[in-house]
Design a protein that fits this description.
427 residues; alpha/beta; Rossmann fold; 2 domains; 4-stranded antiparallel sheet; 16 strands; ThiF family protein
Amino acid sequence: MKIKSRLGVYWRNRAALQIGTDPRAGVVIAGLSAREQDFISALTVDRSLPEITRLAQQHGLNTDRLYELLELLHRARVIDHPLSLPGTGSNSSPGTGSNSLPDTSSSPRPGTASASLPGTGSSRLPGTVPNSLPGTASSSEAKAVSAADNLETGGAESQAETGDAAGMLAPVAGRHICVPRLDPLGVEIVFALALAGAASVVTFDAAPTGFADHPALLNVSQIGTGTRVEAMRGALGMRDLQLEITVTTDPLNTKTKAVATTRGRATAAEVVADAAVVTAAGAINPLECDVFFQAGIPHLLVCSEDVDVTVGPYVVPGQSACARCVYEHRVDADPEWAYISPQLFTRPPGFAPLLELQHAALLAARALCCLELCDQQLRIPPPPGIPGLAAIRPGATCACTATDFPPLDIPQPAPLVSESPTVIADR
């Protein structure tokens, strides 16, 4: 049993613990002692009942309190693989045993708060409905479906002419794209760009392969035996996709963002990336987008959240809303986000299933060809949900759309006063 990998556990404040960041999947639990908070935080790793019992003893929890906490987590629908708890009196479900808690890992949270247990109180997370962002106005369903169709098909004529996925991504051909991170979502983005005929891709990710990497990378390179870039090249070759991919350790050098290719071979020409795709799990860290903002490179934000996978906004420096605007909207809706987000940025990422990542990657590659996602975000729910648009207004205190900045009024240093050296005359 463990807490769902996409949710995560965060300290909301000294008196409350938060699981997840989406109101449809997360919950806030108050009234826990410090030891109980530490115990729940340790449940992000899959453990058997004897292991959990031993962990509870280490945190000073008796058996009754342990079962109360596990039942609370079950009712909140935030756990995978519920365990058989003796004496719980729960109804059995197929394949789980007579005293098992029903497995609700695949069903979404209802719109009501979970029932509280003695000594604790749980409630839904503050937030908004699925098709809107905190602090923004949700679009109508007709507009959302229409915009999603336009992004997904690239227009009826282009799809009819080509009859394949490459046709809808044709405008990406010949472009130089930066994909900073080769996480599972970034790998799917690279596959989509290769399918679309992008000229080259550059990444900042020189990390070795790990157990949480995309299966396509692990099919090429065993864990820890090579880098993600090397495995990415091998994965492209296994799919018979031609794409030059390079790695740079100097993100600030905007003149080496990509390399030009001719007939599949890299040339020595230096070019600036046409655009970038910033990927993450949970939420986009605005600090990671600063390098593209300073270089004036448009960048698309793609994120695998607790429930949805989001594509957008498409950030045009000086013209449209940016990652900090999204952050500000979250803080406006929930001030505690300022404390939760640093924990989210540093936790091990939990991504959506590959099928959902592939869908988002195709839409992201398509979004690079147009400005339809400027000041907007496409939210892709799990099947059979329909993608919807959320408006992203520039933040009130963010200067991302400013074009003219006043000169900095830097005080001048005091003048250096040097006294004339004293000359001692010879006698």
